[in-house]
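Title: Comparing notes on inverse folding

I've been comparing how different people in this forum approach sequence design from structure. To keep things fair, I'm posting one structure and asking everyone to reply with a full sequence. Here's the target:
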């Protein structure tokens, strides 16, 4: 059985009745993913970040590295089921959400390999989002981003230069 490694982004900007403030939601989601069978290898610190777009509320963001035999579509299915278990409902883009889980990177490189566009790894917008790169650089600075020549560390440095 082949084991894959993934980098996953976690974010929350809404309270949860059982887990409390967004940082508590992030901690509970990490625990839930481990209980669901993902081998949680390392987690970043939880970082408070300003909202992107119209959501208005700041986010708690983190990243984690996991290992699992699941291929990217199967992992995405597990992540979406976890979001629903935490009360996530479809809503407006960039609106408030109790939990957001995204596959950022995969040890297999790029997905899809043969067309299709409902799942893309690496995450299409990760190199433009400091709220993704800031926690990820803490746990996987040397991971090369497919389709680029950049590591996570270099992508964040480039983004900060453009912003500053």
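Reply #1:
Here's my take.
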């Amino acid at each position: 059985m082949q084991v894959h490694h993934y980098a996953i982004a976690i974010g929350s900007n809404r309270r949860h009745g059982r887990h409390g403030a967004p940082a508590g939601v992030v901690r509970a989601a990490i625990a839930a993913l481990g209980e669901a069978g993902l081998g949680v290898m390392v987690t970043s610190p939880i970082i408070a970040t300003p909202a992107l777009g119209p959501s208005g509320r700041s986010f708690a963001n983190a990243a984690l590295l996991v290992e699992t035999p699941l291929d990217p579509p199967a992992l995405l299915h597990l992540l979406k089921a976890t979001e629903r278990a935490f009360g996530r409902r479809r809503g407006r883009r960039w609106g408030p959400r109790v939990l957001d889980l995204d596959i950022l990177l995969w040890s297999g490189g790029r997905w899809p390999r043969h067309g299709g566009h409902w799942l893309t790894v690496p995450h299409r917008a990760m190199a433009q989002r400091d709220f993704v790169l800031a926690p990820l650089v803490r746990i996987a600075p040397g991971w090369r981003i497919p389709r680029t020549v950049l590591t996570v560390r270099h992508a964040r440095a480039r983004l900060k230069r453009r912003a500053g």
